[in-house]
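Progress against Task 2.4 (sequence-to-structure conversion) is shown through the following example record, which the project officer requested during the mid-term review.
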Amino acid sequence: MNLYEIRNIVSTKLSKAKIDNPQLNAEYIISHIVGIKRPELFLEFDRIVNDFESKKIKELTLLRANKKPLSWVLGTHNFCGIEIKIKDGVFVPRAETEVLAEMALKRSYKYKKTYILDFCAGSGAIGLYIAYRNKNSRVFAIEKMKKPYSVIIENKKLLGLKNYCCARASSIKFFNRKFDIIVSNPPYIPLKYKKKLDEEVKKEPRTSLFSGYDGLNMIRYISRNAKDLLKSGGFLILEVGEYYSDELKKIFDIPYYSDFNIIKDFNGRDRYISAIRKRYG
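Structure tokens generated for the chain above:
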């Protein structure tokens, strides 16, 4: 059997399992096993798949058909063009979070040496990406869960980053210093929407998804504490849900912030908020 034939077989199985973009998923699985970049598969469709490769492709296809997230199946995730390792039980960054990382990165170039905090770091993708792209930045990350923290440490070594530091902690004030930028993709889904989520999303860690009945507990915590951590004129940017824009305005309607903005994602949904720490005095 050649690559073209097995691509079609895997795609059909995933389609029957109601996996979104089954052909794309099939190509990622196959390219991962045979060691070819996905765009190059099309140039190698005539290549014969050996028994070992066929067996591994079958195993991964079954996992994916059972709604296991693709990045967990592969053990890797491409985030803004860099490959990071991902393990079962670690929240998988979405495309929307890549936009968040790009906005924070763009802001980081405004300073000669930027001090950045990535809070609720998860896999570490946001902070790792910024540290990788902007070597003049100093990125500090905080993640409270053991498994994601271990993945962050692994990815830091993999990327060879010397301008990145991570702590396993729950307090946003752990590092006891001021930052130019605070960026975060906190849990923000209201518990009341739990039953409406896709089955694949429900497999992801609960602590990375939900933040109280209205989804705002962690955002309130960040709003209360970020004011003490941001330098005068510092920049706060968060990924949020589209469920509660009016409440967000109230949460950040305090004397410490200015230039509060709600920013839409590529689907036209309210997805990010940004604010500036008012200048002291």
